[in-house]
Design a protein that fits this description.
Elements lengths: L1 H8 L2 H33 L10 E3 L8 E3 H37 L10 H16 L9
Length: about 140
Amino acid sequence: MKGFKDFVMQGNVIDLAVGVVIGGAFTALVTAFVDNLINPVVAAAGGADSVEGFGFKIFENNEATFINFGAVISAVITFLITAAVVYFVFVMPMTKAREAANRRKGVEEEVEAAPEDIVLLSEIRDLLKTQNPQGGNPQV
């Protein structure tokens, strides 16, 4: 039981719970925006005579065969708005804050090490240069 208590009290679970609640509220906001502002514009692209919006029926007398392009376009717009807001409001500021905190602490950013094959090829190149200082092609 102590292990579970420690896990819950670490803060990660609390952060996750807050993120889920904020995400749900934000999803409702974006859905309302798309449903009430974007969907009417997309439906208008279906034409003035269209009742269903931007799409068509495969069989005129069967409602189940309606292909709704407007719903797909709305879903894409909802995703793009959500992704943009998450990136610009959460990810980018957190990255900048983390970089600033690391600079204050004097922690250097991790530099990605060169792959082993690149290192070996560079060493071979350097050895060949030392064997042939004139810069010409080495004799093999």
